[in-house]
């Protein structure tokens, strides 16, 4: 990869952007593979041959190693792609979102969310909002609201504790202003809103250290219906697991854990897990 990673900025602000990792041709290929489902009917990225390289080409792994300061990077099946997703609203992705005394908040958080936006979001709407510095704050209402200026080819990485929202609104006038994703009553005239850059496509993956935060997050995710449905729809092949191993990923085969587990995936909505 070779691109610089602002490690200090990540730990201070809760996110960073690594510029120009992928070429226009590679981004076009990702878009084509997203439309084709990555060559599979279900499963996370590791179960989809056409999109598996996002995890195994080394780019995300190198970024994770630099940020986390360790060589062994862990993957437990949390990845997906989206096309024209519509969800908006501030939230966090970690297991302990409502209790500041819970394990997620007792030590430096080591689970990272990666995002590759396959169209421009410097001048176009539909990108990512983050609350700067909110990875250290339980409240969803604190932290400066940032509309992240992704260009095709960039990789974004943010703490799964950070407050964020998809499908951000970018306003042309005044320049580069964004709305609050939770303010559903905001009416912006269409002439003030930046246009979309075609179909909105994005690829997401979670990597981190194999530690107590990883174990807790995976235990939480195994309670969520959407995640378990995804895993049950796409088991890992031996080829996929070997490709991940060669790339330097330590993989937890969560699809095999949930396939016959009647207790997995019972929660449609967020619910905390005990500690």
Classified by CATH, the class is Mainly Beta
Order of helical and strand elements: HEHHHEEEEEEEEEEHHHEH
Structural class: alpha+beta
- Give a short account of the largest sheet: 5 strands, antiparallel
Q: Strand arrangement, largest sheet?
A: 1-7-4-11-3
How far apart, in Å, are the first and last alpha carbons? 39 Å
Per DSSP, the total helix count is 8
Helix share of residues? 10-25%
CATH homology superfamily name:
q2cbj1_9rhob like domain
CATH topology value: Jelly Rolls
- The tally of domains stands at 1
**Which ranges are low-confidence, i.e. pLDDT below 50, for 5 or more consecutive residues?**
none
> Which descriptor suits the 3D outline?
globular
Mean pLDDT reading: 96
What fraction of the residues are assigned to beta strands by DSSP? 15-25%
Secondary structure: elements and pairs:
Blueprint: H1 7-13, E1 15-18, H2 24-35, H3 53-56, H4 59-68, E2 73-75, E3 79-83, E4 111-117, E5 129-132, E6 144-147, E7 155-159, E8 164-165, E9 170-171, E10 177-178, E11 201-208, H5 212-221, H6 225-232, H7 238-247, E12 249-251, H8 254-258
Parallel strand pairs: 2-12
Antiparallel strand pairs: 1-7, 3-11, 4-7, 4-11, 5-6, 5-8, 9-10
Protein name: Phytanoyl-CoA dioxygenase family protein
Keywords: Dioxygenase, Oxidoreductase
GO molecular function: dioxygenase activity
Could you explain how this protein is built, in words?
The radius of gyration is 18 Å and the shape is globular. It has eight helices and twelve strands. Strand 9 and strand 10 form a beta hairpin. The relative contact order is 0.22. Helix content is 24%, strand content 18%. Strands 1-7-4-11-3 form a five-stranded antiparallel beta sheet. Strands 6-5-8 form a three-stranded antiparallel beta sheet, with no helix packed on it. It has a two-stranded parallel ribbon with strand order 2-12. It is of the alpha+beta class and 275 residues long. It has a single domain, classed as q2cbj1_9rhob like domain (Jelly Rolls, Sandwich), CATH 2.60.120.
